[in-house]
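Dear H.,

Thanks for agreeing to be a second pair of eyes. The structure we're designing against is below in token form, covering all 461 positions.
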């Protein structure tokens, strides 16, 4: 349990959640205090504007009409030059201005004597026994050493804004941040468990348990999609492993017979070394077995070369109609000797982009396949036509066709159906046909509607 908790706390998901939560709280705090400061600035600017306007009026009156006029018109209250303490309550209630005019010796001449402050702008408190409300004040010096201070009470909204900002700060730090971290922890645990399940799958596969698959919850979330992709990849790997095993078995099977023949002939040569005619017979048989080995290796090398696409850079425009007619002419006597009928129907001037030699190899392999594996007295046909803008090559016979159980495997390397075991071949011909078709971006398939084994190759437009 402790290990799982430590893994969760050390996981990237939790660390990213921690960072995101911290950034979120910092951004919220910055926005909170920025908005609060802006609102307070707006209030203070309004107060400063009213105070500046009052001081401008006072200076104009003081310099234009004298001190006494200023006192009587702006500062004195009900004929009293010096304000009583109780008058401050009325001023506060009506959001009025607070004045004090002082002489050079700082003695109050008019206004409220409890208003103090340095020259310029300041935030200060009134000297009052009961009223504890802060004011915004400005003090200026006048002619003759007099000084004038004008102030306004700070509105309660200003204090409320700061209180809200402080409470918001505590809420973010003491409630939102812990909750976000707690939520991030539990979310990280869930994510970590899903990731651990996928990691366990890959670890099991790494130890050889190829049937293990990543769990899929059915939620269709990104983890299910990841698991699905991994499972599809593992299925493909399993299929490749099966193909490799099949190829290995096929190579071993097809190489064993000629190698055994060569070994046996060498023993017979040793036995019959005094009989030149017998030795010649054994050598001919060994050379035939060796030629069979070379055909297998040549087919494998050619298949690997085609699969790698090494010859694709040398593609050119190939007159497939001419190639098909030439091969049909060449194979017609072969089918005749095999007591089979061969007919070819070729539309003129059909061209494709590709490698001429490989295309000839592909068609030859299909024709050879028809020669070797079609029934006795079979009717074999080949056609090259244009259909819906695409060039279509069809080669087939009128026999019983390929067993449905084998159709999905006929293009596998070294695969040979039961009916083909007794005929010559190594099971690489159709694999090479498919590889060449793929290299030319052509599709190859068995015609499921045809009576016999009919291969259809469709070249792109």
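And this is the sequence the design step returned. I haven't edited it by hand at all.
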């Amino acid at each position: 349990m402790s290990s799982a908790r430590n893994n969760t706390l050390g996981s990237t998901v939790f660390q990213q959640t921690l960072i995101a939560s911290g950034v979120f709280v910092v951004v919220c705090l910055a926005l909170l205090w920025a908005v609060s400061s802006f609102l307070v600035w707006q209030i203070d600017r309004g107060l400063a504007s009213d105070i500046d306007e009052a001081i401008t009026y006072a200076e104009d009156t003081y310099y234009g009409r004298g001190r006494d006029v200023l006192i009587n018109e702006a500062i004195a209250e009900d004929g009293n030059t010096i304000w009583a303490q109780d008058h401050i309550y009325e001023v506060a209630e009506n959001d009025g201005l607070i004045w004090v005019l002082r002489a050079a010796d700082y003695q109050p001449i008019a206004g409220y004597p409890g208003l103090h402050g340095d020259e310029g702008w300041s935030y200060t408190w009134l000297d009052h026994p009961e009223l504890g409300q802060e004011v915004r004040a400005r003090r200026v010096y006048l002619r003759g050493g007099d000084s004038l201070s004008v102030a306004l009470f700070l509105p309660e909204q200003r204090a409320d804004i700061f209180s809200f900002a402080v409470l918001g700060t505590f809420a973010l730090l003491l409630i939102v941040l812990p909750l976000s971290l707690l939520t991030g922890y539990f979310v990280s645990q869930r994510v970590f468990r899903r990731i651990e399940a996928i990691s366990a799958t890959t670890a099991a596969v790494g130890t050889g348990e190829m049937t293990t698959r990543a769990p899929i919850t059915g939620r269709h979330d990104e983890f299910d999609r990841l698991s699905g992709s991994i499972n599809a990849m593992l299925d493909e790997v399993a299929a490749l492993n099966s193909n490799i095993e099949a190829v290995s078995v096929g190579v071993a099977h097809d190489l064993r017979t000629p190698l055994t023949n060569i070994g046996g002939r060498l023993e017979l040569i040793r036995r019959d070394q005094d009989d030149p005619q017998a030795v010649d017979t054994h050598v001919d048989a060994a050379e035939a077995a060796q030629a069979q080995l070379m055909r297998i290796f040549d087919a494998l090398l050619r298949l690997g070369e085609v699969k790698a696409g090494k010859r694709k850079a040398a593609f050119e425009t190939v007159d497939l109609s001419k190639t098909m007619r030439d091969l049909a002419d060449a194979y017609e006597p072969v089918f005749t000797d095999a007591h089979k009928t061969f007919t070819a129907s070729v539309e003129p001037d059909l061209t494709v982009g590709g490698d001429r030699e490989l295309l000839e190899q592909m068609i030859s392999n299909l024709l050879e396949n028809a020669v070797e594996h079609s029934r006795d007295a079979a009717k074999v046909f080949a056609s090259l036509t244009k259909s819906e803008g695409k060039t279509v090559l069809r080669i087939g016979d009128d026999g019983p066709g390929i067993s449905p159980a084998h159709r999905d495997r006929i293009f596998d390397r070294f695969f040979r159906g039961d009916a083909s075991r007794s005929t010559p071949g190594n099971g690489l011909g159709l694999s090479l046909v498919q590889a060449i078709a793929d290299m030319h971006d052509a599709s190859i398939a068995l015609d499921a509607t045809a009576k016999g084994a009919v291969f259809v190759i469709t070249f792109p437009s």
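Two observations from my side: Residues 6 and 189 are 11 Å apart (CA to CA). The chain has a mean pLDDT of 81.

Warmly,
E.
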